[in-house]
Design brief:
Layout lengths: L7 H20 L10 E2 L17 E2 L2 E2 L1 E2 L2 E4 L2 E4 L5 H38 L1
Parallel strand pairs: 1-4
Antiparallel strand pairs: 2-3, 5-6
């Protein structure tokens, strides 16, 4: 659920949307993990969030506001800069490269041991 927040009425519109979602889940007996529901605001660094953090409530539970969120394997931050996502992928690639190097060394070492055993037998 999203909305361009320009004034207090827009915040109330989002809160009504959240309440409608909760009502819909109750009507159709769909369980909703409220602990996984978060507030994520995207904005330009020059602009604030109207000077105050939004306080949205779902089933009498205040939703937590987060600075970054992961969706379908991609990390997003409030400024839509992908530096954290790129760093994560680079670190994962280096980790995989390390595993490949280790496996290559292990296979080489296993071959050397096999050759030594063959020489002494």
């Amino acid at each position: 659920m999203y909305c361009h927040i320009k004034n207090v009425a827009d915040k109330e519109k989002i809160q009504r949307g959240i309440e409608n979602l909760v009502d819909w889940t109750r009507k159709w007996q769909v369980s909703l993990n409220i602990n996984k529901c978060k507030i994520f605001s995207v904005h330009h660094k020059r602009y604030s969030n109207m000077g105050e953090a939004p306080n949205y409530v779902m089933s009498n539970i205040l939703l937590e506001e987060v600075e970054k969120i992961k969706n379908l394997g991609v990390f997003y931050d409030t400024l839509l800069l992908f530096d954290k996502h790129i760093c994560e992928k680079i670190n994962k690639a280096y980790m995989m490269l390390g595993i490949i190097k280790f496996e290559k060394f292990y296979l080489y070492f296993e071959e050397v041991l096999y050759n030594i055993v063959q020489i002494f037998n």
